[in-house]
Amino acid sequence: MPFFYTCSLIEFIARETKNHRKDIVEFLGEDVERIYNYQDVFHCEPIEKVADDFITRNNIHDGEYDNISSCKYNVPNYWDIGEVFERLIEDNYDENDVFVGIREVYSSWLAEKIFNFNSDLYYQPRDYLAECYKTGKIIL
């Protein structure tokens, strides 16, 4: 299930518009599937242009959610976070449920914890994050 680009684009758009990632997934609606199906085409253009096209197409207005400026440490780039979410979805959903997985993972309690870039949660191994997601809590 290669949807690294899809998750990275969601992250990029969220940062550009200062919206929660779960809201970006909702704004994009069926375009999430379009991005996934044509990511091999979209990645040939600068991500800034692709993001701008989807922001305009879906009338995504600027929000007030800014988890970047409050970071005390190095902020992971949108590709890094895209990879974290790609893996989390891959590890918890099969290919037939990928779009359900995208909606559920981005709306989950764990997503909000990962987006606290002042913690090290996004650096944790994929199997650890998958297990946290399955159990519904941070495993100590």
Structural class: mainly alpha
Total strand segments: 0
Q: Report the uncertain regions.
A: none
DSSP helix count?
Answer: 9
How large a portion of the residues is in β-strands, by DSSP E?
under 5%
Ends distance? 29 Å
Query: What is the molecular shape?
Result: globular
| Share of helical residues | 55-70%
As a whole number of angstroms, the C-alpha radius of gyration is 14 Å
The biggest beta sheet, please? none
Written as H for each helix and E for each strand, in order along the chain, the element string is: HHHHHHHHH
Total domain units: 1
Q: How confident is the prediction overall: mean pLDDT?
A: 94
Description of the molecule:
With 140 residues, this protein is mostly helical. The chain has one domain (4-135). 60% of the residues lie in helices and 0% in strands. The protein has nine helices and no strands. Helix 6 crosses helix 7. The longest helix is centred in the middle third of the chain and has 15 residues, at 78-92. It is globular. The model has no long low-confidence stretch (mean pLDDT 94).
